[in-house]
Each structure stands twice: as C-alpha cells, then as structure tokens.
Amino acid sequence: MINPKNIHASEPDASLDRVDGPVKVTGTAKYSAEYQFGQLTYAVLVTSSIAKGKIKSINASKAEKAPGVLTIIHHLNSPGIPGYPVVKQPAERAPLGTAFRVFYDELIYFNGQPVAMVVAETFEQAVHAASLVQVVYEVEEHQTDFEANISKAEMAPSVRRSKNSPFQDYDRGTTDAWKNAEVKISATYTIPTQHHQPLEPHAIIAVWEAADKLTVYDKNQGVKSAQGNLAQTFKLPRENVKVISKFIGGAFGSGIRVWPHTVAAVLAAKKLNRPVKLVLGRELMFTSVGYRPYTVQKIEMGATKAGMLIAITHEGIGQTSQYEEHLERTILASRAMYACPNVSTRYRLLSLDVNTPTWMRGPGDATGMFALESAVDEMAFALNMDPLEMRLKNHADSDPERNLPWSAKSLKACYLLGAEKFGWKNRALAPRSMKSNGWLVGYGMASSLYGFHRHPSKAKAIMLADGSVVVQSATMDIGPGTGTAMSRIAAKVLGVNPRKVRFEMGDSSLPDAPGQNGSSTIPSVGSAVHVVCESLRNKLVTLAEGMPGTSPSYANILKYHNLSQLEATEESKSGPERDQYSMYSFGCHFVEVHVKPLTGEVHVKKVVTCADVGKIINEKTARSQSIGGVVGGIGMALMEASVMDHRYGRYITSDLASYHIPVHADIPQIEVHYIDKPDMLVNPIGSKGLGEIAIVGVAAAVANAVFHATGKRVRELPITLEKLI
Amino acid sequence: MRPFQYIRPKNVKEAVDMVSLEENARFIAGGTNLVDLMKRNIETPDKLVDITHLPLKKIEYHSGTLRIGALALNSDVAEHAIVNSRFPLLAKAIDAGASGQLRNMATVGGNLLQRTRCAYFYDTAFPCNKRQLETGCAAVGGINRMHAIFGLEKNDLEKSCIAVHPSDMCVALAALDAIIITFGPKGERKIPIQDFHRLPGNRPDLDSILEKGELILAVELKSNTFQQHTHYLKIRDRAAYAFAIVSAAVALDVQQDQIRAARVALGGVAHKPWRLFDVEKALAGKPISQNTFRNAAAVSVADAKTFEHNAFKIKLLPNVILEALMNAAGLEPSYD
C-alpha cells in the first residue's frame, strides 16, 4: 500500500495569496450586474414617500409614453406572483410573520417601499420614466420612533408560542440578586439603526430561459437558499431555478435573504420575456435590504468588592417591522460569557412602521457585547480595578448556561497575548490621566465571543488528468476569501500544491451547501471539502495499489487506469458532540484612542485584536477578515448611524456622504493575533470561523478607551464629538 | 435623470449667450455636484453647456495678485507653488475638502457654486424651500445637527432655509478677501467674496448673486501679510471625506508677538462662508497668547441662534477658533 503522503509534495507553510486577487484587481471578475445579454432591459424602482397608508392612485400614463419604456408594473397591473396568496379585496394588513409581498396590494408598510417598477430599453430611460410616475397616497399616522414607542415592546409572538425558544425569559439563580451586591451598576445602552452598505449595491439580472425555467445573476449570500426561495415564490421545480452569484463586493448580512427587489425583477422579466437588470441606487440600499436594528439594552450588575460578579440582568429591546419578527442574539452573550451565579435576561421586540431588519455582521452579539462589555468596564471602574483583571477573575471555565465543558477555550491566552502586544501594563488606572501632545489618551479593551455554527454541507472533488483538482460546492465568497481557504484545505488533504486546486462556488447547481453567514462557511463547507478530498485520495490510493514504482503521481494513476478524471462527493455534518460540548469562538480587542479635549474629536491610534477560533486555515486572508471586522467595529463605535426624521418616517441618511463608514484616514495600525490551536471536537478541520467574532466587542473596546481618555461614558452610539465636549 | 441636450460652446461669449438666453440651461464643468443633483431630480436642466475646454484654467501671479482661472482644478490649486508659499491657507482649506478623486475633477468656479448638502434638499420626498420655494423647510423642526447658527432669517424661518454652504475652499477665500471675476450678459464685473454668496432670506433658492448666464472667469487674491500664521481646522465626523460640522480658516499678521491684523472665517455655520469681524477686532493689537485667543473666540457666538440638534455648536465653535488660532500662532495649548 502506498503512503498517501508520498504521493505528492506536502503543502507549503506560507499563507496563500487570495486566489481571486488577480481577477478582482484587473476588473475581470464578473459581478452580478456585469453579465451581458442581448435584449437586456433595465429596471428602476419607484418607492413610497410615506411610511404608512394606502396608494390611492398611480398615474403612469406620462411615464408609459416616455422614450424606451417597455412596461410599468405596480399592484394594479401586476401579473401576480404565484407563491403569494390571492389578493384580498379590500386589502388587509398582513398578519405578523408575512414576508413583504411586492406589488401585492395598495398598503404601505414603510417609507421607501417599492410601489412600481419601470422597465426600459436603457437605464437612463428607466430612471427618467420612473420620475414621471405619479403616486397619490392616503396617509395614515405612522410610528417609527423607537424611543417614543418603547413602552409598546413585547415578547415576540413566536417566542411566546415556543417554550424552547432561546429568547424566553431566562433566570439563573436568584432574580434581581444584583440589588444586594456590595458594588452595583445599572446602565442603559443604545445602538442606532445601522446599515451594511457594502460598496457593491445589490443587483440582479433575471433571465427566463423558458416558461418554467429561471436563471438569476443575483448578489446574495446563499445561492441554494435563494434558489429555494425563488422556486417557492414562482412555483417552479427547484431544479428549474438557477442562481449564480460568483463575486460579491461585500454584503455583511444584507444578502442572506431574497429581498422584494429581486422578486420584482424576476416578475418583470417574466412579463416582458426579456432579461431584466435591476441595480439598487445607494438611497434604496437604506430601505431594500435590511439593517442592524435600533436596540436599547439595560444592564444591571452586582459584584463583590473583590471583583467577583454576583449577578447580571440584561434586558434588550430590538426593533422590527409591522409584518415580520426579527430576533437577534442580543442578550444571549450575558448567559455564557462570565462565571456568574445569578443571570437574568429578557428580550422584547418593538414593531414599527419600518421595513424588517436583518442580520448584520456579528448579529445580536455585536449589539449585546457592546452593552455587556461596556458594563463590565463600568463595574471595573466602580471597583477601582483594572478591567482586564476583572475579566480574568470572572472567566468562565465551563459554560455556565448549559453546564457543559467548552469544546475548547483559550480566552485567557487571548487576554494575556493581547495585553502584552498592546502594552496594557502602561495603562494608568484613573481615567483622564494619560496625555500625549495635547491629546487625551485612553486604553480600552473588551472581550468577544461568537457561537459555533456548522450546517450539513456537500462537496465534490474531481482529480483531472493533469493532476490538478477541481472542488465544487454551492457555497459563497462575500469577501473573506472562501476559494483561497478551500483550496488550501483540499491541497493539504491531497498533498498537492494549492495552486493546482480550483474551487468552484456561487452556483446553485453545485453540491448543496449553506450560504455564507454566521461564520459557518469554513466550519461547514471546509469540513465537507476536507472529507471529500480524503475520499478522493482514498480512491486514488486504492487505484495506485499494484502500480509499478513506489510513488506514482495522481496524473500517472489516472493515466495508468485510462481515466480522464476521478471524482468523489461527500456530505459532512455535526454529530452528537453538539450536545456534549459548548462550542464558541472567543477573543478580545485592545484599543488606544486619542481625544482632543477642545473639540471632542476621537482618533483611534492602535488596535490589537486576538482571536481563538481554532485552526487558522490561511493566515493572510484570515488577518484581512479580522482587520475588516475591527474597521466595521470602529465605524459602529464612532460614526455609523442611519438617522430617521420621524415626522416623515423617512431616513435623512440616504447616501454615503451622510451615512459615514470609516475611510483609510480613520484606521490606524491593526495588529491581529491568533491562538491557532485546532479544536478537534467541533469538526475534522478544527476550525471555527472568523467573520462575526472579528467585530463583536470592538465598539465596546472603543467606548471603553474613550471613557478612559476622557472620563465620559458614552452609552449611546455612535460616539460623535458633541457627546464629548 | 431626465433627457437633456449637451453643447460645447466655442468661447466664453457663446457659452454665456447659450445659458442666458435659454430658459433652463446650465453650465457644467467638473460636474461633481451637478451630476449628483441631476440624478436625484434636484436639478433638471434641459441643456448642459460644457465649458471644460474654455481657456480658464490658468493660475498666474503678477504684481501682487494671484489670479486663479475658474476652471483650474481644486487639486492643481492646492499643489501650486505660489499658492502654497503666498496663500497657504487656501491650499490647506482645499486639501481638507472632499476626496482626492473629487478634487481632481472639481473646478474652482464649481466649488464656489456647489450647493448645500442638507439632506432635506437632496431628497424630493421632503419639503425644501431651497429646492422649491414656499414648500417649507423640513430642517427647522427636523434633524438639524449640521445646520446654520448664523445669518438666519429673522421673520419667517419656515419660508427660509437653515442649510449651510458646504465648501472648504470658500471659507479660506472669505478670510482672504477674494474677488470673483465674472462675465455675463451685462459684461464683466468684480464681486468681493463677501457679496458673492447670499443669505437665504425669502429666496433660499438663490445661493449667489450671479445672474442668469453669468459665468465665473477667475478668482483673484491680493498678496497679504498673513502667510506665516495660518490654519484651517475642519471638524468632521470622520478623518476625511466628510463635510464640516464646523470649520475655521484663521490668518494672523504677527509682528514681535503682537497681532497686527487677523482674519477669521467659518464654514458649516451659515448659508455662506462666515466672516467673524468682531473676533478679528478683538484680536487686533493684542499679544499672541492662549488668553487673547480664548477671549476673542468667546465673542464668536454672540449672535448665534441654535436648533434642537445643533446647540452643541455654541460650545464647539469657540473651542475650534481657539484651537485654530493657537495652531496658526504656533502655540502649544494647555488644557487644564
């Protein structure tokens, strides 16, 4: 028997450059809006300018006569979407739990709702005609102001119905035990609505290949889930729907769902029997693809004078639309993060006349850990204790929520490594006591955690005659470098140079895999790639038996057996270990800020981020992902906010000049460190995924640093300068 | 964007004729603002008269006067040797504006005429007197964090406008008493920058006193004694590519630690670049010191009026002026 390790050279140690780097920087990577078709038509949405009410009339006659216009679709003339129930007359507000139905009836649920779509021969013609569509509304009083309506928040109906929901009220130990603690704090933290705003706007080209056969080139984070959704919406056999999403210019969660604009484009293409392209303008990106919900959290915390946590209560109120629930992990981190005997959590939802939120990087945890990790910092200050020492003292050695051992946890190692690399020992304990060149200097830190997610995934591996390998799975790359990491996993198992591996994804006809979300791609699809490559290798090893020589190449094995290629397909999924261990990623961030005392300007000067995410598959792309998370966290802390004028129930931030995301000049040196210790209890590759945890806790670390610099505790993000002067 | 005609005139005269005689024609140069406004149906010209090829790009310095052609690119002005040596304040202000890509497209004339960035102005779903007279001002009772505190209409604010002029360059030009040279149907005229931009009053639709078809040819700056001590301080929500919450252009003429003359102009506080003559007076004749600057800066907000979300500007503004003056004078501030 041949030792498979001898078949080929072993993998190189150095990080792989991004395999799709060259096509991206040379502009040859094809994004959803860039596919070319003869007969291509261009769609533009007309959206509501009121937040609640009815469409009284739509006058499209001027628009219809505009040059190049092919069709104008709205609720009065929509050919109908087979997956929607029949329109009721008169229209009734949809029961909670109904996804928004585009061009369905005259009801307006939120400002910016699509009310009509113009399709024309050119984009410019469609834009012009859209401006000529006149919509008259019957306005009803709307409620969009979270703070003004907060008393109406309630337990989500789905949670009320499900006793096993993690969002049920939770009490460990004694309720309100914090009140009797030696040292206690109580504080309320607010994060505003934030939008993903990837630089590539959402886009789709819908092509009906036949009356019952649809292909869409769509920006999304899951081709298989989009395929399933569109098949259901248009009542097509699943295999008749093909979704292509090869390259994505950022998404951060905005592409997890199939949004109404996608359905609208497919509908128009069906009506015209021509391909339809729809690209959302930047202003529509605020109302078409979800957002991180406005959330108010109250934390009450009690500790002994020695700094041992006695009790935490964490109450979170999130925002959703009037037609759908949106639940986030907001309060869940407080149950698992620290060894604390008494923990209570409450989670409530407030329905407003807005569109439904969605998951945005580190969903729930980025929100919840801003509150929890700010509160721990407040407690450390109340105790006159170093915030890192406070966290080390209350480290949870096993999961206090589930009473299970961690599959692996190197958080203490993260703390110590980060502190050393950052120079935490130079931190003066008292706030507003460090200065440099006329600036106030602050050091802050925060922990991070993120639950482990692994979904059943399939992959196919094909050995080609020349010894190169193709690996396929219907997973995605929204930016982290999926292809690079998968190539490396495959190369390692097969013992080939990663450059000889081509990873194919972003196509719903490939083997079934989850979309890219919840930091699950590497844990799920990475495992499938590992397993399928093992399977392929075993087949090859079997074929090599009895061949002359001791170490034939893969190419020679195929040639010897007169095979043009050899393939294997496998599925990989979790087993009983899910019930035996608690699985999380952990990490921490250290941040130095400088604050100008006269003007309140905050400059982040240094960030050190450490993560324990099991095995790091490809260090170079991992680092880039961690850096991106920190940048997102800095944005969340200092500038990102979607601001609504509640008199109109409409955002006044409608472009990237008013919705600020960080620019290069805002970002300092970011150091990234990994523990890089495989967690072999979670999956065969020992790796836990990185996308979400990279941002979780960053905003708290920044806010804590600002407090240390200025002595001012800002509990309402973003930390803009007027809050500091 | 609605259909429009695009024309390239042969010379300045023809360009001016085209725009002054046509009902709804506009000049276009860099287009960094106008094109955005057209995309969102804020500006809806029937005809665009492209002037980018006209010979108005030169930057010249003769006998104490700097003349910057209206089509000189912002980036070319900011990098020009004479501008940097004799009018450093202008270079600093231009560099604080927009992004590298925009400065490479935007012209000096266009910068003078850029329109406010008030969010209500940019979205036709909101009422806005600047966009359409008599529709109301959504900002007065709305989200007005970025809005004006000076030069506000006293009588009927709802018919006026509380938006601010967004330019950084113009703040420096105001501090340096620039002259705007124009050519219109009535011939050439020279407009001091103080008179060039308007206060909103009951005609907030008009940003400047330019008449229909009147074209900016150049901006002139007279040599001054302020080269040594200038600073442009822009306070904004991120480190680059953001409009000013408040900005200050300051210039001091200092002889033996005494201030002979001072110039202080602000951005982000009014419908036009805002000169603070009272602060300048309070500085003249005084020794340079943190105390002098603090006292003078305190005068700055005497006439300010604030709204729900921009009241912080009253506190911020004197600090910004103080910091800018300290910087211009080369003093290290002490904060305690």
From TrEMBL, chain A:
InterPro entries: Ald_Oxase/Xan_DH_a/b, Ald_Oxase/Xan_DH_a/b_sf, Ald_Oxase/xanthine_DH-like, AldOxase/xan_DH_MoCoBD1, AldOxase/xan_DH_MoCoBD2, AldOxase/xan_DH_Mopterin-bd_sf. The lineage of its organism: Bacteria, Pseudomonadati, Bacteroidota, Cytophagia, Cytophagales. It comes from the Bacteria. Residues 26-141 form the Aldehyde oxidase/xanthine dehydrogenase a/b hammerhead domain. The keyword Secreted does not apply. SMART domains: Ald_Xan_dh_C. Keywords: Molybdenum, Oxidoreductase. This is Xanthine dehydrogenase family protein molybdopterin-binding subunit. GO terms for molecular function: iron ion binding; oxidoreductase activity. The keyword Oxidoreductase applies.
TrEMBL record, chain B:
InterPro entries: CO_DH_flav_C, CO_DH_flav_C_dom_sf, Diverse_Substr_Oxidored, FAD-bd_PCMH, FAD-bd_PCMH-like_sf, FAD-bd_PCMH_sub1, FAD-bd_PCMH_sub2, Mopterin_DH_FAD-bd. The keyword Chaperone does not apply. SUPFAM superfamilies: CO dehydrogenase flavoprotein C-terminal domain-like (SSF55447), FAD-binding/transporter-associated domain-like (SSF56176). Residues 1-226 form the FAD-binding PCMH-type domain. GO terms for molecular function: FAD binding; oxidoreductase activity. It comes from the Bacteria. This is Xanthine dehydrogenase family protein subunit M. It comes from Dyadobacter luticola.
